[in-house]
Design a protein that fits this description.
alpha+beta; Rossmann fold; 3 helices; 2 strands
Length: 110
């Protein structure tokens, strides 16, 4: 059986769910600070895949995590700085959702 890769599938006009490892170090754990990504190696590692899918007309939905939050209110692990850095690297807007399910997520993914 031959395994297919992203080079073998047509993603034009389709939504593509991609699990990425964006568990990157940040400049601070204090949510009141201006937090930035201090090492974007993992984000950069995903760029060839993301750029290929975007170039082929796919609409990306990315899933990742950051750290080990104890509760949903643990803001030190919010993905905002990661989304900001990804937007810079892709040179396009990145919409970051605060939830993983629900009407807002469904509307954004529609």
């Amino acid at each position: 059986m031959n395994k297919k890769s992203i080079l073998d599938i047509d993603v034009q006009g389709k939504k593509v769910l991609v699990r990425v490892d964006f568990n990157v170090p940040l400049s601070s754990k204090d949510p009141n600070d201006d937090i930035t990504v201090t090492d974007d190696t993992r984000i950069r590692a995903a760029l060839p895949t993301l750029n290929h899918l975007l170039a082929q007309g796919g609409a990306l939905i990315l899933c990742s995590h950051l750290g080990r939050p104890k509760t949903a209110d643990d803001k030190q692990y919010a993905m905002d700085p990661v989304a900001a850095r990804l937007a810079e690297l892709l040179d396009r807007p990145v919409i970051k959702m605060d939830e993983v399910v629900g009407p807002e997520v469904s509307a954004a993914a529609a």
